[in-house]
UniProtKB/TrEMBL annotation:
Chain's gene name: pstC
Compositional bias ranges of the Polar residues kind: 1-12
Classification via InterPro entries: MetI-like, MetI-like_sf, Phosphate_PstC, Phosphate_Transport_Permease
A GO cellular component entry from the record: plasma membrane
Protein name listed in UniProt: Phosphate transport system permease protein
Superkingdom field: Bacteria
Amino acid sequence: MVAPKQMTTPSTGRHRAPDDANVTPSASSGGKPPANLTGSAARRLGDVIFRRLATGSGLLVTLVIALIAAFLIISAAPSLADNEANFFTYSGDWIVGGGELKFGIPKLLYATLLVSIIALVIAMPIALGIAIFLTEYAPKRLIGPVTYLVDLLAAVPSIVYGLWGILVLGPAMVPVNNWLVANLGFLPFFAEPKDNVTNMSTGGTLLTAGIVLAVMILPIVTAVTREVFVQTPVAHREAALALGATKWEVVRTSVLPFGFSGYISGSMLGLGRALGETMALYLIISNTGPIDFNLMESGETFATKIANNAAEFDTPAKTGAFISAGLALFVLTFLVNAAARAIVGRRQA
């Protein structure tokens, strides 16, 4: 037999192995892929599954919101079409019986926004101070207990806040309300209540409701703000210290600018909680009150309006009228969050 010829490369003259020496291991092992290729395929399968699950979760949230919006619109549309008054301007008493429909949202919108703004005005500076204290000034042995106590406020049921507000804070606010009316009554915010429509004797005023809401949203704003402040880059702090900045100057020039967007985001989360709060306000404020920006008056929010009249959901027309209030609150929440995102985006730009 003639031995196979050995081939040489033209450039070096070195012998090159026969072609059958270049057979891959997969071909010589019965077609089984190597172990590392099998592991890669398994990892790719895991990535595909995880990606699909994550995508499905995101789509599920969008679907739930869309279904809620569709339910509100479909349920409220017939009553809105039959409404004899202007839904956006009618501020009289709601009439949803006897074949007549007259309802509007100005009073509900006024009370909801006023109480929520009071809560934000009180809670935002306190939450900012707590967050700065916990991240910059608090001794290590106090950070854990104080953080736990603040977070514990978020776990208290709203009905408990309502009971505390009407049985403890309300009576305590009676002399304060009387003093405000007597000494600052020339201001529209603390004027003498009109037509005896307020709960001045029990302290069930819009001011009391705003204070209770401030306590309820305080842990939300504080938690988000604290977490953002902790993420301030160490290089920013060290650069400020290297320039001779004091502790407060480091906070003012490094921590606060870095955490501003998180502070606003946390405040908007708290505002969302305040806008939709029901049980606490249901116990504190009544269902009457004019639109005059007087904190000594009472009022009715979107949520308390629905809760107060839940027993009247006996016909589609009545139910649709109150669902329209829920639809307005739903839209209001979206608008508030959109405004917050615009503010944060403009600040970051």
